[in-house]
Model the fold of this input.
Amino acid sequence: MHARRIGLLLLLALSLAPAVQAGIERVDLQVEGMT
Amino acid sequence: MQQHLGRLDGVAKVDVNLLNGKVVLYPKTDGTIDPTKVLKATYDSGVTVAEMTLTASGRLTRDSQGGLVFQVAANQSFPVKPNEASHELERLAGSGAPMELRGRLYQKPPGKKKFKTTEPLRLEILEVLKKN
Done:
């Protein structure tokens, strides 16, 4: 019974954890000579 | 330059600040930005890139020689330049743990004017923003 409850709590925690989406989010450039 | 960069594949938006020389590119939700093409397009528009950094999410893996690689998409990864931050993350390589990083991909070498597109871009990890 306890094991089942812990399992359910773990599943809940995993589903609520913010997922990190793969990929580039932004690219920052520092440039010189721009007018 | 804004038009040059805005035409690149995978680029949704380009913010240019003329006062401080900072340019920010945001990708399309379904696209992939190629940093090498960004560097080339910037030089082609007549300005010099002093530094390029990126913020990305992905996983650390290893290449065939055992070097650390940051995989941001199935078809896009960057070899990691060893530094203090990368040493701390070595143990996570291959674990599949997702993370969000900010890293430097390019810094203009002193005295050198033009970026060569043949040079592979290596990611120097500056900070870990999020780890799962």
Summary: Chain A has a mean pLDDT of 75.
